[in-house]
Amino acid sequence: MTQAPTNHLDLSRCADEPIRTPGSIQPHGFMLTLSQALRVQQASANLESWVGIPAQHVVGQPLSEVVGEAAAARIAADIEANPIASRPVYLGTVTPPNGAHFDVLAHAWDSLLILEFEAVDRRRAADFRNLYPLIGDFLVKVNQSATIPELSELAARHVRAVTGFGRVMVYQFDADGHGRVLAESKEDGYDSYLGQHFPASDVPAQARALYTLSPIRLIQDANYEPAALVPELNPITSRRNDLSFAALRSVSPIHLQYMRNMGTLASMSVSLIVKGQLWGLISCHNATPCPVSVDKRTACEQLGQILALCIESREDASELQFRLDVRRIMVEMLGHLTKGADFLENLSGVFPELLRFGRAGGVAIVVDDRVLTYGDTPDEPQIRALASWLSVHGHSEVFHTDHLKDVYPAGADMVRNASGLLALPISRIHQHYLLWFRPEVVQTIEWAGNPHGKLASPSDPTQLTPRLSFQAWRETIHGRSLPWHVAEVELTVEFRTALLGIALERAEQMAELAEELGRANKELEAFSYSVSHDLRAPLRHIVGFSDLLIESGGAEDPERRQRFLKNIKESARLAGKLVDDLLSFSQMGRAALRPTTVDMNDLVAACIDKLGMEMQGRNVDWHIEPLPTVWADPTFLHLAVFNLLSNAVKFTGARDPAVITITSEENADFTIFHVADNGAGFNMEYVHKLFGVFQRLHRMEDFQGTGIGLANVRRIVERHNGQVWAASVPGEGATFSFSIPKHPSH
């Protein structure tokens, strides 16, 4: 390590230390690395102090040369019976020829089989059964603890009972790597760190990564002298050995100094892994050296796993409840937003819900030249400038921050009510935003020592060293709001999708309305024409023939008077039918459909019976194939079919015989009906006018009618979500077709 360039000592360089490849181990045991044939490749330098054989003498020798034939055979049998992976496996207790006893751990890593021998006083293997009651007791009490701090305090007490450490803390990391002590169990005389924060530099990123891989780490005595591996390099990789999973792995000298500065000579850390991420640690301290056997470490590791599962369960439940609460507000808002026609007015109408949705102090809507606000918000010019900044800096998706002034310089003037911002673009084209503002929340954090560095004293070593003070140090943080919960951000994205969906639906509705208005305007134009032409013609006849009757008042010509009266009657009848048909067409668009199963054979027969008067003296040849049933309004469908058959009868007036054919066909979605005749037909060039209101393709003098019948047919069929069309050859007849859905939408 290099000397710090100033009189400030900085922990950040600790992050560069080779903590996975220290090249040495802690000396409360010894290490051997072996080939697949169980020949020694390396041995720790302290081997002689444990078994009486120098490390360099055993390199290349079989394992039996170190631990004896019996112990080597037993280890070989255990390795063969239990596949060895990266996580250390307890193989039992062995006794080499010198009579010492060792617990043996084995794992395969870095191209070698690594054996660790930890000295113990007992000859027999570790008895894990004695520790199961402790875990069982913890499991029973877990169900009685509702909150994560309560669970953590329970775990701290159990770990202290198992290990005998003087202080056990449960320590949670935040998003920046800083730690906070959630729970603590300690003996009298130990300082309390409950509720205090530790800076991220105390556990650098590479150390947190290693804690994620290896769930437990023990330092029995912070004053130990490390034992190097002999030879220094892994003979297979030609690099220092990766000891990430080794229980005896030596630790950073900086960390050992850190422990001594803290008044701790023994420590143990158990990782709390939640959803694959390092959530925190169970951190154990003791003022004096403290060995912890493999069985006790295993129990602590299991307690840590159980605690992590409980934390995950509690956090999931809390997260689910939070999401349900926010989603309930969102659904309530969306319900209101779909009612009115003015989208902006709808949004401003749910301002209270928007405030609750974002747990905000104020909310603003920016749309073109309008800014609508609710609650405690910045001034309108500040909001406009902020919206411009958001658009310029490419924040086209949801943007959020809990320290706006650090990313937006003008935010320094809005700290009081806008330290936090959640910005939702509500248009993909225009500079339209929905903005939530959170006020400043001044926080006082109690650190276990000043996290921003320390002054070195003349007595400090010249090497980079860890901080010396752990006295409580308070820091007041300004310019920040409450952070935005990840669920709030995700649901805001979902809310944006829903808003854009509503806007799109409104646009489609407006397009449909415009189309309907266009059609209505055309019909209105046709109506105006009809009123000015068709309806006025019979009225002119009535007036004209009435004048003739008055003028011929003294004349005694009964036939002439009878002819005048007949013309007056016929004109009045035609005018009345025009009004009746117009009323019928209007009703087609307003009356509710009452669909049911309709037998088309019966319906067509009823229509033909009704046409009896129109066919008197005519030779009409009906060809009707068997017809299926449909789901439709029988009254409306009867009117549509009657109009089509009446047209066929009317336009075949000059044919003898008149041939009218009614057929049907089906596809996956529709039942289709065809009405064909051999009548006058029409020019297909004008087919687009055929189903318009008051439209005629023939002279009224040739074929009587009001021009509303086919318009009624179109409206009825379209009300059923079907279609109507026609085909013809002039002088050879026409075929009118319409479709009725098989699966009507409700």
Q: Total number of β-strand segments?
A: 29
Number of helices: 20
Q: Which range does the strand content fall in?
A: 15-25%
Global Rg: 46 Å
Alpha-carbon distance between the two ends: 77 Å
**In this structure, how is the largest beta sheet organized?**
7 strands, antiparallel
Q: Helix proportion of residues, in percent? A: 25-40%
Q: What structural keywords apply?
A:
20 helices; 29 strands; 746 residues; six-stranded antiparallel β-sheet; 23% strand; alpha+beta; 38% helix; single chain; disordered N terminus; seven-stranded antiparallel β-sheet
Describe the structure.
This protein is an alpha+beta fold. It is about 40% helix and about 25% strand. It contains 20 helices and 29 strands. The strands form seven sheets. The chain has a seven-stranded antiparallel β-sheet. Helix 16 runs antiparallel to helix 17. The longest helix has about 45 residues, at about 485-530. The radius of gyration is 46 Å and the shape is elongated. The two termini are about 75 Å apart. Residues about 1-10, about 455-470 and about 695-705 have low confidence and may be disordered.
